[in-house]
Write a structure and sequence with these properties.
single chain, alpha+beta, PH-domain like, four-stranded antiparallel sheet, four-stranded mixed sheet, elongated, binds zinc ion
Length: 385
């Protein structure tokens, strides 16, 4: 093996290690991850969440600790087959001799040490495992007398359906059950009991997804602080879109520091501008035989009462006051009130050209039912009586 091929091999091996330790989406979907390859050893996460993660983190540690020695083994196998390379190896060996020796010794010892540790942890049904020890801190002397009972409680809740599971990255997930907040990582399981935990959203960051910055994605960082002795604080990071799910599943409010500003989407901002304009339009009075409570809920969102009516108010003129041609005039809509203001505003936004965002409010749209053309001036709030 020449020096070049040694370098190529090293780079290739480093990439391989990276993919094993931090699998990309392609690896995950192809099932080429440690969790998948050893799935029969690990058992079912759904049936036994804690046991699964104790085994999974131990296995990760074992496999990852073997990567350096595998590298050295393959590297030297190549050298032994080739005399020139053996000379090269000699050079390398003497040049960086001490550091190299140290690396080799570490690489040889590492898997051994990890194996001994895992053996020690696994005795007595994993009672010595650091995760088991951590769970032991949640015993309450009552329903949960030892770590096994704490684990059983977590397993039980995880089996139920209404948990929130958020993927943070390829190696980390957040699981929120009825009473627990759990973060899984490659080697560890962070656990907090909701009853004695404060969640504080302390930082947010926004990233552009597409080049024209039209779509952005925002992440919120949340500190999970337990007041229970021995439980260390950890932090979770969620997409702002998942924040509400999380909030709904947590028994107590999440504190949001003033530094965290929820970024609002273009459509959300448009809805506000739209509402401001509608508030200035003439209102609409329902016929005497019907009240707002008689109306069915909004056709789009199904959960609020319709509060607007499309009725022609505008004068069919353009920005400079010139009469519009027939084809661009607004039309009469005879539909009964069916939509709430938010849904109409969103519908209106959805019918516009994405690239002409600045002029959306001046544009027109058609009634979702009868297709009559209308503009924002033709949307009226229904008078409350
Ligand atoms: Zn609605
Ligand atoms: Zn209509
Ligand atoms: Zn109009």
């Amino acid at each position: 093996m020449t020096q070049e091929s040694a370098i190529v091999f090293t780079i290739f091996y480093a990439l391989l290690c990276f993919c094993i330790v931090y699998p990309s989406t392609e690896f995950v979907s192809a099932g080429l991850t440690i969790d998948r390859l050893f799935s029969s050893t690990l058992g079912s996460e759904r049936m036994s969440f804690v046991d699964y993660h104790i085994r999974r983190t131990s296995l990760n540690l074992m496999v990852h600790s073997m990567l350096p020695i595998m590298y050295i083994r393959v590297y030297f196998m190549q050298f032994n087959n080739d005399e020139n390379a053996a000379d090269l190896a000699q050079d390398v060996y003497s040049a960086v001799s001490i550091a190299w020796k140290f690396l080799v010794i570490t690489a040889v010892l590492l898997p051994g040490l990890v194996a001994v540790a895992i053996y020690h942890w696994s005795r007595n049904n994993w009672a010595n495992h650091p995760i088991a020890k951590r769970l032991g801190k949640f015993t309450d002397g009552n329903r949960m007398r030892d770590w096994r009972m704490v684990a059983a409680n977590i397993n039980d809740e995880y089996r139920r359906d209404h948990n929130v599971v958020i993927k943070m990255n390829p190696v980390s997930r957040i699981v929120v059950t009825e009473s627990w907040v759990i973060k899984t990582t490659s080697y560890w399981l962070n656990v907090a009991h909701q009853d004695d935990t404060a969640l504080i959203a302390y930082k947010s960051d926004t990233h552009d997804v597409s080049q024209d910055a039209f779509e952005t994605v925002q992440y919120v960082n949340i500190a999970v602080k337990s007041t229970r002795p021995g439980i260390r604080e950890f932090s979770i990071r969620v997409n702002a879109l998942d924040f509400k799910d999380l909030q709904d599943r947590i028994n107590r409010p999440i504190t949001i520091l003033s530094s965290v500003k929820f970024h609002r989407s273009v459509v959300e901002r448009f809805v506000d501008v739209f509402k401001d304009q509608v508030a200035q339009n003439p209102t609409y009075r329902l016929g005497s035989n019907i009240t707002i409570d008689d109306l069915d809920s909004c056709f789009a969102c199904m959960h609020t009462q319709p509060n607007i009516k499309i009725q022609k108010n505008c004068l069919d003129v353009d920005e400079v006051g010139e009469a519009l041609p027939e084809a661009r005039c607004c039309q009469v809509c005879n539909c009964r009130p069916m939509w709430c203001i938010d849904c109409v505003a969103k519908w209106f936004a959805s019918r516009q050209e994405q690239s002409e965002r600045d002029s959306w409010l001046q544009q027109k749209c058609t009634c979702p039912m009868c297709r009559a053309r209308f503009c924002v001036l033709d949307v009226s709030y229904i008078e409350k009586r």
